[in-house]
Amino acid sequence: MTMETTRAGTTVAPASRALDVIGGDLTERSLRRYLEGIPGVDAVGLEARAAALGTRSIKTTSKAWALDTIIRLTDLTTLEGADTPGKVRSLVAKAMVPDPDDMSTPRVAAVCVYGDMVPHAVEALGSAHDDGAPGRINVAAVATAFPSGRASRSVKLSDTSDAVAAGADEIDMVIDRGAFLSGRYGQVFDEIVAVKEACKRPDGTYAHLKVILETGELNTYDNVRRASWLGILAGGDFIKTSTGKVTPAATLPVTLSMLEVVRDWHRLTGEKIGVKPAGGIRASKDAIKYLVTVAETVGEEWLQPDLFRFGASSLLNDVLLQRQKLTSGRYSGPAYVTID
Ligand SMILES: O=C[C@H](O)COP(=O)(O)O
To answer: What EC class is this (predicted)?
Structure first.
């Protein structure tokens, strides 16, 4: 027996979604057969659909709603090697009060930070992080040797469980792109299942798991579609495009292809999976294109923080400028928003 057939016959983790959809005989081979049986993406058609959705205009009244919706759906992010507790405190202050001159401005969904910054984010949020607090802001932590994903399994799992123990509500993990692109789907699958288990808290609840595909390294839409199915089958609560550290990061066609998988999964199982485009989304007008694409592909009910997020470090600033322009009739200029 060759290594390949040995591996192909290897049982993969008995994740319940995959058992339900693929069946009880869950092996590297059956997983691969399933993923390789997913129809390919018509790239020209996908890009044409995304371009058409991106040209839809929205009325001024809808624009106010759209801007507030973008804020509510934002994971306000800082993921720099130079991050400090002070920078995280500033980020949290902005998350809680995005525009001190307009207290009607909604809060963001979450702040997204490196794992070692979680205690600082939790402390700065204070009661805004209490269970059931009105306008509660979640703490999301990137984990599993973000952004490369190149570390041992044990390091990735302790990265995850440390962040959860420190109070992270959400874990943004990266998949092993090397294993995925080599066709070792079972390895990627098992790792997601293990990370999900590391998201478990002592009380039996789980931090929400976002599975970052890093689509800019996956080369084809077929791979993006296959990785999306893999992430969902293994137990991801969200599928996320990118780390923000690789170009291209989020694009509308890639996000549309992921939304189509989420739509198909919902039709197949009735279950709703979230989507998070992240990286390079900086302008309100671009974020609005994403809102339209979500509404037209999976429906407006997805436009809530449990099912859709923007991962972005500077988008909020542009949204605040546009919001000020809409309410005051004039453009205040970038001096009126804080520069992070
Ligand atoms: O997940 C979020 C990204 O890392 C942020 O990327 P950005 O700085 O391009 O907005």
So the answer is: lyase
Nearest CA among 168, 179, 185, 255 for reference residue 15: 185
Query: 210 and 173 in contact (C-beta within 8 Å)?
Result: yes
The tokens for 155 are 């390091």
* C-beta of residue 309 within 8 angstroms of C-beta of residue 74: yes
Q: What ipTM did this prediction achieve?
A: 0.96
Mean pLDDT of 216-225: 98
- How is the chain split into domains, by residue range? 3-329
**Tens of pLDDT along 54-102?**
998 777 679 999 999 999 999 999 999 999 999 999 999 999 999 999 9
Structure pTM?
Answer: 0.94
Helix (H, G, I), strand (E, B) or coil at 279: coil
**Ligand 1 pocket, residue 111 CB under 6 Å:** no
Domain spanning 3-329 has what CATH number?
3.20.20.70
Catalytic residues: 172, 240, 276
Work out the average pLDDT over 106-115. 98
CA of 38 to the centre of ligand 1 (A): 30
